[in-house]
Fold Sucrose-6-phosphate hydrolase.
Amino acid sequence: MKSLNEKKQIQLAEEEVKKYASIVESDPNRLRYHLMPPVGLMNDPNGLIYWKGTYHVFYQWMPFQTTHGAKFWGHYTSRDFVHWERQAPALAPSEWFDRNGCYSGSAVDNDGVLTLFYTGNVKDDDGTRHTYQCMAVSSDGVRFEKKGVVVHLPDGYTAHFRDPKVWKHENKWYMVIGAQSEQLDGKAVLFRSDDLMHWEHIGAIAGGEDGNFGYMWECPDVFRLSGKDVLIVCPQGLQPEGMHYQNVYQAGYFVGQLNYETGQYVHGTFTELDRGFEFYAPQTMVDEHGRRVMIAWMGVPDQDEDQHPTIAYRWVHALTLPRELVLIGDKLYQRPIEQLQLLRSDEVHHPNVFLQKEVRQFDGVKGKTVELLLKQIDGKGVFSIHIQNNVSFSYDFEQKVATLERESFARNGMKEKRQCLLSQLHTIHMFIDTSSIEIFLNDGEEVFTARFFTKEENEHISFQTNAEASFHLSKWKLC
Ligand code: FRU
């Protein structure tokens, strides 16, 4: 049973949804096939799980304003991973241990009980922060009951200790938590349990030392893929380095071997997951076929968040498409899940395209909700794709650089870009959804994710080269 206070919070949130529904839905920038908040602010995906035949995506939600605050867990479910139904909020801030927010966390199936772990965020009047790792359970997957605190802050860390990700390994439960040490280094901290209630602190499995890799690590996730242990994490406090670390905070991963007994994690270097503007707080889950799938927040904390034009329509942010993760060597490849094909219609093919010093548009290749696939790409000079006169993707065959450029929505239409090195380009798989773009290069070797906002509605897509480019082009309308 929920406390009266939590019920009241949820009721207020639902009233807010009703009150602003028509304004939110009238926004021309509203996405068509991505998860968004019904009103207010959405950030991290939480509690991703395939449970009893249904996909659950929870998310950090502030229903009452388009800025951060005391977060709820919003909730969507789906049978096929592409068509979603909104459910009542699963968690609302209400108790002494979570009164200033039910912060990020994860979900597991415990003998048929859907069990959530989240961070209870508490701030005293004088600003002192407290953090508690909490549990909530549900037997129907829709109504959740809080069970209270299961992990208290261990010695050696500040109250920036949050985002529990729980999983099972060889009959024991493990929890990894994002942390800040008292020396102000970001860390990922491991716990072990037999019963999900009592947790033994094993220690930090990875982290910076002496300020060399950020002051805080958020949203860690540990999983095994192709015989290796991957740690995804979001370090805060890295400085830009060439084409790397261009966003305010980063999201990336390490690959290595984790000793579950000792907590020793031998791993390689940090690799960014996405090279675009808006990507943060990814979380993974195992789908019905045993595939590892990741969803992230299509936003970055503190990065032009108050400048999104959607705020005028009382909502802000969205989640990325679900992406299957595949490990090739020590590199994570991301591939849009194949169920997205269910959204396809109006298929168009232009095989054997050859462009020479020209700009070209193709019959049937335009729209606001579009999937584009370019295969067997070859060329010289610079090849680019221009979308809605606002955002472009280009590849320089000589410099071996991929670039995403857009008109900034925060700096008066100024051009801004993100780049990465790519030794060759053979495939571009692009998902445009009104005001979002996700570009998968070479079957997911690199990905660019971004939001963009045009002043006038348009459906423009054109292809350009200053030398030559050849490819096979396919296009689908989505949803
Ligand atoms: C990441 C994050 C998490 C925290 C949540 C609060 O974006 O800061 O560390 O749990 O957002 O909404």
